[in-house]
Amino acid sequence: MPAHLTNYLIMLPLLAWIVWRRVSRQFGRQPIRRKRMIARIAVFAILGGLLALGGLHKAALVEGLLGGALIGGAIGLLGLRLTRFEVDPLRGDCYVPNPWFGAVLSVLLLGRLAWRLMVVWPQLQQASAPGTGQPMGYASSPLTMLVIGLLVGYYIVYFSGLLIHHRRFQRGQLRTTAA
User: Fold this and answer.
1) Is the model's pLDDT at 109 over the cut of 80?
2) Sign of the dihedral defined by the CA atoms of residues 53, 58, 60, 61, in that order
3) Which of 7, 32, 82, 173 counts the highest number of beta carbons within 10 A?
4) What are residue 30's DSSP bridge partners?
5) What would the mean pLDDT of 139-155 be, rounded to a whole number?
6) pLDDT class of 119 with cuts at 50, 70, 90
7) What would the pLDDT profile of 44-88 be if each residue is shown by its tens digit?
8) Is the sign of the CA dihedral 120, 153, 86, 167 positive or negative?
């Protein structure tokens, strides 16, 4: 088996597992874990910054990423309005996200990545001809960067908003128990 295909045998199951975990967190009651949410905000911010720096060689890539991040932020605000907070006797404070937002964004990302893989696959088959100067993968498509920007903007705004709303929810719970 060629060495470049071995990398895909390792990366594709890992990517599938990551996507499965992400999609499973879009449904049902989710416990609020402040430290994990803060870590996710930091990771998405770093990822967005690195992708923006990596796309500086082509302005359309950065425009796609920033446009996607702005649209994703607006969708994140709308998703926050449709999120409910509850107290579970076993899990503690929880939130119930609207499943449509996360599911649609996940399907959009998976569809775009699958399309990109189909387009790039013939180039990967000709890996014996290096030095063509053509970037492959996500880095050469403004539309893919827009979809990635959607996810980055959505999750930064959504997790930040969850943390803010959770504080308000806790204060409201304290007021109702004190009254």
Assistant:
1) no
2) negative
3) 32
4) 95
5) 84
6) confident
7) 999 898 888 887 788 888 899 999 999 999 999 999 999 888 888
8) positive
Q: Identify which of 26, 3, 9, 1 has the alpha carbon closest to the alpha carbon of residue 109.
A: 26
Tokens 């964004």 identify what position?
Answer: 105
Burial of 9 (0-12, 13-18, 19+ CB in 10 A): exposed
Q: What are the residues whose beta carbons fall under 8 Å from the beta carbon of 36, sequence distance 6 or more?
A: none
Place of tokens 């719970």: 173
- The region that residue 133 occupies, defined by phi over 0 for left and psi between -120 and 50 for alpha, beta otherwise, is left
3-class secondary structure, 26: coil
Tokens 């109702």 correspond to: 176
Burial 115-154 (b: 16+ CB within 10 A, else e): ebeeeeeeeeeeeeeeeeeeeeebebbbebbbbbbbbbbb
pTM of the entire structure?
A: 0.73
Estimate the crossing angle of helix 34-54 against helix 59-81, to 10 degrees.
160
